[in-house]
């Protein structure tokens, strides 16, 4: 299909260019022919008008000559002289016109000779009338010389006028031919243009169809990739949740082992030290002192074991509930870190996994504050609503730019995943010099 569209493109463009060139050629040819025909027609019309004026001027001269001869009134000589001057001027104009028409120059020369003879005949009669030679001018007037010359002038002028009319008709025919050529050219160009436009439409249709197929293919590939991404994301989320659950289970198992095994060993050792100490009584002061130190060391170990066990799996969650566990966590962390921690905790009803999620969120937030925030005060709040609870941990530390959180921020990423796995949403608000607030919204159904 692409090759077919390319072939149409290769044909339609040259076809359109050829049609445009053909149209330009036809228009230019028609213009040249029409211009030449109009020029010939103008020249023919000018020739015909000049010949008509020449005959009229000869008649005017003859009328003035006859009036003067019959009346002797010199006033008739004025139109006669005016007509003679016009005849001379008109003959010069016609001579210039027929210079470019060799085929008609012979007929014009004949006309010019007859006009000259007619003018000579009239001039002779007028001169005799002026000289008082009445017999002479009357004789000339009664002869047929003037009549024959006038008839010859009419014949030659009609012949030249007919030639001019023929030239005008030829010019009109040439104009009609040029117009017909233009019509043919325009019709041909229109047909070629329509063909090129049709090919363009077909090409455009093919390109649109090809584009739609490519778009559909891209959409299918995109949908497939999105499906794969969703499946991979869901798989990774399930894996992360599984790893988190496994980690919590391992923590619980380790906490139980430490509580049951190590706790029992430390307690037994403490009891043995107490029995040894009671039997020695005050007999060996130095041994009693060492036993007292051992007892203190065992007490420290038992406290350390208890703290580690609580960090791994807070037993207070199952025995005392979420609020008491958070109070204990805040108090112990305040003692270890030196931070001033205030709490605003409302009693909430959550399942064991959701309680653990809240506890880990607060615990991880306190750890991050101690490591990075340089804070002096921390506020922990838990509020109960109809269908959800909110948890907020706020400090007055140095804060940070949210866009600076990179992929390596596993603490926040772990908290976000834990909250989202519980069906909630985690928010982090911070600005440089304004502290940080970590908040979560968790549904009660979880």
UniProtKB/TrEMBL annotation:
SMART domains: HATPase_c. Pfam families: CHASE3 (PF05227), HATPase_c (PF02518), HisKA_3 (PF07730). The chain crosses the membrane at residues 6-26, 184-201. GO terms for cellular component: plasma membrane. Its main location: membrane. It is found in: Cell membrane. PROSITE patterns: HIS_KIN (PS50109). One of its GO terms (molecular function) is protein dimerization activity. Keywords: Cell membrane, Coiled coil, Kinase, Membrane, Transferase, Transmembrane, Transmembrane helix, Two-component regulatory system. It is a multi-pass membrane protein. Residues 253-446 form the Histidine kinase domain. This is CHASE3 domain-containing protein. It comes from Polaromonas hydrogenivorans.
């Amino acid at each position: 299909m692409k090759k077919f569209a390319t072939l149409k493109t290769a044909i339609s463009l040259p076809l359109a260019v050829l049609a445009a060139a053909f149209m330009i050629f036809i228009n230019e040819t028609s213009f040249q022919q029409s211009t030449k025909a109009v020029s010939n027609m103008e020249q023919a019309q000018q020739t015909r008008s000049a010949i008509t004026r020449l005959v009229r001027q000869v008649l005017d001269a003859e009328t003035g000559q006859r009036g003067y001869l019959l009346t002797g009134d010199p006033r008739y000589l004025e139109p006669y002289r005016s007509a003679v001057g016009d005849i001379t001027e008109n003959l010069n104009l016609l001579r210039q016109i027929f210079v470019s028409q060799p085929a008609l120059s012979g007929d014009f020369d004949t006309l010019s000779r007859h006009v000259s003879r007619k003018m000579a005949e009239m001039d002779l009669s007028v001169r005799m009338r002026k000289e008082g030679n009445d017999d002479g001018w009357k004789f000339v007037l009664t002869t047929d010389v003037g009549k024959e010359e006038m008839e010859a002038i009419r014949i030659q002028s009609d012949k030249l006028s007919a030639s001019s009319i023929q030239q005008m008709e030829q010019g009109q025919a040439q104009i009609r031919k040029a117009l017909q050529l233009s019509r043919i050219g325009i019709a041909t160009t229109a047909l070629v243009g329509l063909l090129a436009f049709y090919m363009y439409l077909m090409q455009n249709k093919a390109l649109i169809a090809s584009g739609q197929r490519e778009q559909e293919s891209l959409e299918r590939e995109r949908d497939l990739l999105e499906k794969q991404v969703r499946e991979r994301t869901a798989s990774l989320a399930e894996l992360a949740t599984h790893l988190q659950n496994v980690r919590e289970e391992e923590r619980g198992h380790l906490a139980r082992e430490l509580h049951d095994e190590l706790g029992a060993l430390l307690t037994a050792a403490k009891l043995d030290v107490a029995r040894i100490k009671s039997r020695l009584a005050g007999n060996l002061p130095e041994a009693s002192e060492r036993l007292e130190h051992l007892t203190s060391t065992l007490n420290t170990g038992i406290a350390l074991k208890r703290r580690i066990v609580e960090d791994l799996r807070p037993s207070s969650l199952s025995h005392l509930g979420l609020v008491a566990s958070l109070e204990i966590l805040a108090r112990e962390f305040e003692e270890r870190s030196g931070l001033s921690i205030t709490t605003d905790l409302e009693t909430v009803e959550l399942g064991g996994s959701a309680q653990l999620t809240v506890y880990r969120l607060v615990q991880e937030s306190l750890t991050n504050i101690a490591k990075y925030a340089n804070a002096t005060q921390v506020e922990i709040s838990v509020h109960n609503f109809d269908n959800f609870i909110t948890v907020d941990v706020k400090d007055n530390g140095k804060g940070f730019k949210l866009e600076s959180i990179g992929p390596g921020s596993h603490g926040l990423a772990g908290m976000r995943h834990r909250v989202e796995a519980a069906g909630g949403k985690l928010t982090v608000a911070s600005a440089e010099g304004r502290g940080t607030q970590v908040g979560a919204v968790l549904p009660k159904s979880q």
